[in-house]
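Section 3.1: Structural characterization of target chains.
Under the original work plan, the team committed to producing a structural model for every single-chain target entering the pipeline before any wet-lab resources were allocated. The record below documents one such target. The sequence was received from the expression subgroup and is listed exactly as submitted; it comprises 238 residues.
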Amino acid sequence: MLSMKTTPNHTGVKISGDYFDLDELNQAIYKVIGKEGEYHGYEGSRLRILGVSYEIRHAAQGDRNVEFVFNGLHENTKKQHGFIAPDKNIYFSAEVLWPELLYAAYALRDFVRLYGDKRGDLLADTYTPVIAKFQALVLECLQGHVPGEEYAAILEAFRKSPSVNEYAVQYVDLLNLKYIGMNRQQREKSLSAIAMKLTLQDSEYQAFRKQVIDAAAPGKQPIHEIGIQAKYPEQVEW
C-alpha cells in the first residue's frame, strides 16, 4: 500500500510502497502528463512532476531505501494452511522535498483536466484514480503538520487556485532552497505558508515570474528553460 510520512527533520516526505504500488503510480503519472510538448505552456510543470517520478522510479528499482514491513501473515495462519512463508514484504521508498511534492500534487490537477479533455469519459479510466490517491496522500500527510484552520485554507487554495499554465517553475527551486536552509522548527512553522505560496501565485511569485520572463525575452526562450544560479546541497538532512 502506498504511504507517505514526513521525514525526521521535516525536510520532506518519504513515499513508500511495494514495487507494484510505486510502478502503478509512475505509470499513471506518465500517462496523465502526456508526451513532451503535448500541452503547450505546461512543459515546465511536466518536467517538475517527472523529477518526482524519477525518485519514485528509482525507489521501485531498489536504488533508494529498502525496508521490511509486516504483511499480516500470522503464525497461526501459516499453521492453519500448512505452509512456510515470510511474514514481511519488501517496501521501497524515496524522499522528496516538501515544496517539490506539494507543487507536483498541485500541478497534477491541471494535467488531470487536460488528460480528461483529451480522453473524454473517465468512468473506466484506471490512471486518474491513482493520481487522485497520490494527491490525497500528500494532503493527508500535510494535514498532520499544520493547524486545522490553515489546512482548510490550503484545501480551498488547491481547489480554486490559478492554472499552472506558463508557471515559473524556478519558484519551486527558490522555495526548496529556502526550506532546506531552515531548521526543523522553522520548517514546521513555514510549511503552511509555502503550500499557500505555491498555489495562490501571490505578489512575490508574480514579481519573481516577471524576472524570469525578462530573462527569457532576449533569446525568446520558453520560461521553463531559464536556469537559476543557486545550487542545491550535495547532501540533504532528511
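The mean pLDDT is 93.
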